[in-house]
Design a protein that fits this description.
Number of domains: 2
Number of helices: 6
Structural class: alpha/beta
Shape: elongated
Radius of gyration: 20 Å
Mean pLDDT: 93
């Protein structure tokens, strides 16, 4: 397999600390297990990412012991992508985790869960510290798989008013709404925030609040989409046109 830059594809591992040339960076237990499953051996070339823009290449150490390190040979700082804030509903746990994974693949810069009115009737729903840890694990796994350099900043679930306030400085703010114009017609996008409503849609009062706060309605088509499908579709449209 060859990656998009023309280099032979190598295994990528997420590391918590910023890698620097000459350092011996330890891999997590999950990364070590992954290396063993892939039958990697000492000396194999691997790639590291810290999720904050630094990518490194180095040689894998002995995978037979409990502590496995990568000797870093060179690093690269990848520029941050244009801002893409994904405002998502607190909803079904498994479906939120799936969307979190895809958000990392699309280099979403911020993940902001919102407790919409319709979120309150969902059970079991994705919230709390334990769920936040699962979100991070899904995101780091997706970052490794996609070869990305930037991990989304994952925020705690808040009320809609708080999420709107946090996005106030984002130049372009969209709420997915079947009554809005087609989202592609609003492209190209610079920095943008996209709000995805819960199953059943946002309540009329929530919609009016968003529009009054300067958010614009944007449609993804005539059919009714699940929230996770809508989130992926919106992220794909934004990333395909951003910066043009």
């Amino acid at each position: 397999m060859v990656d998009r830059r023309g280099r032979a594809s190598v295994a990528t591992f997420f590391v918590e600390e910023r890698p620097v040339p000459g350092a011996a960076v330890p891999l997590s237990d999950a990364a070590v297990q992954h290396a063993r499953v892939r039958r990697l051996a000492a000396g194999d070339a691997v790639r590291l990412t810290d999720g904050a823009g630094t990518v490194a290449w180095g040689a894998l150490g002995d995978v037979g012991g409990r502590r496995v390190e990568v000797r870093v040979e060179r690093t690269e700082v990848v520029p941050a992508p244009p801002r893409l804030v994904l405002v998502v509903p607190v909803a079904d746990r498994d479906r939120m985790l799936w969307l979190a994974e895809k958000a990392a693949e699309f280099a979403v810069t911020e993940w902001r869960p919102v407790l919409f009115e319709r979120s309150r009737s969902v059970s079991p729903r994705g919230e709390g510290e334990g769920f936040a840890r699962k979100v991070r694990l899904r995101m780091t796994g997706a970052l490794e798989q996609s070869g990305g350099a930037w991990l989304p900043a994952a925020h705690d679930a808040v009320a809609l008013e708080d999420a709107v306030a946090a996005c106030a400085a984002v130049p372009s703010r969209l709420v997915l709404d079947p009554e809005g114009p087609p989202m592609p017609t609003l492209a190209p996008f610079g920095d943008v925030a996209v709000a995805v409503g819960p199953e059943g849609g946002v309540e009329p009062a929530e919609r009016e609040f968003l529009l009054a706060a300067g958010w614009r309605a944007a449609s993804l088509g005539a059919t009714i989409l699940r929230f996770e499908t809508a989130g992926v579709a919106a992220a794909a449209i934004v990333r395909a046109t951003q910066g043009r």
